[in-house]
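Progress note, project year one: complex with threonylcarbamoyladenylate.
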Amino acid sequence: METKLAMAGDEIIEEAAGLLKSGGIAAVPTETVYGLAANAYDVNAVRSVFRAKGRPQDNPLILHISSIEMLYDIAESVNPLALTLAEAFWPGPLTMIFPRKAHVPAETCGGLDTAAVRMPRNRFTLALIERCGFPLAAPSANTSGLPSPTSAKHVYEDMNGKIPLIIDGGECRYGVESTVVCFEGEDAVRILRPGAVTPEMLREYCHVVIDSGVLEKLGADAKVISPGMKYKHYSPNAEVYIVKGTDSDISAFLKSVSVNKIGFLGFGSEILPDSVTVFPYGKNAEEQAENLFSSLREADAAGCTEVYVRMPDTAGIGLAVYNRLLRSAGFRVIDTCRQGEDARALP
Ligand code: TXA
Ligand code: MG
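Model obtained:
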């Protein structure tokens, strides 16, 4: 299949709407990461998305809407807190989980009786949803397991030959996927996946519980509310390790690593041996969120076999950075200041 890569604009939105209405799929820009979109109500179109990504069937998709009316078409009931949060954060990087109506296909929702819904903040994608008149089911537009795409180029790397259209809307503003929450009564949410709508921001409106799966490894038979949390994720081909410690401990540790091509994502303050190839990361959580996935992809392209990423500060959007990084590293955290011990002894 020929894959067309086109800059976002009115004409291409029109063309994409035609494609989606006839059961096709297309990659679209959002403020978080690129999505691979299909008519959420068309089972065959949704199946094409699962196929193109190589995604497990039980991992549900997020339904993207352009109006509150669309939410009422999907959700069996909408609690008042959801409306308050929608008012505060939509369009934006917040996904909320609702009981779904019977006409929403089970396939779209990974067989669950709930549906995850968000209104993305990208004018082209919002216009596209409006033009279609149905919600777009859209997972991140990467091959399942790889880092999520934050540019059209990343989507092209993974999807060339597999999908007909990629709409290029430039680099994604946040660089990590939306915050996913479910409701616990009418005055609390549980964060299943952290994102740019931070716990601190949500606490302005309600109680916030952070699910244990956000930072802890789930057992093989653990019952998960959000199936996406159980899969290995966001991983380049290189082995990823999180490194913890001071500038000098990290420098000393990297000197001791004896593999051919070492990649490193740090804060910019570390003094590094020549053997290390440095990729953009950043000195604060916002920059780190923006750069994490693209740098992991760059490290692969540069042929790094091991990539060390400095442990981020977990406040604000940093919680999302750390959550993605833990999965990318298979929960391997190296404490570089454990003198005299094998720092690579893993938990
Ligand atoms: O920012 C984003 O959310 C991006 C852009 C494209 O909007 N999309 C995205 O989709 O990250 P995806 O499929 O890569 O991740 C969706 C996450 C998964 O962890 C999935 O398990 C969870 O949301 N999810 C979807 N529907 C759910 C449901 N009904 N109940 C619980 N979790 C759900
Ligand atoms: Mg994804």
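The domain at 4-77+91-175 is CATH 3.90.870.10 (DHBP synthase).
The mean pLDDT is 94.
No further modelling is planned for this target in the current period.
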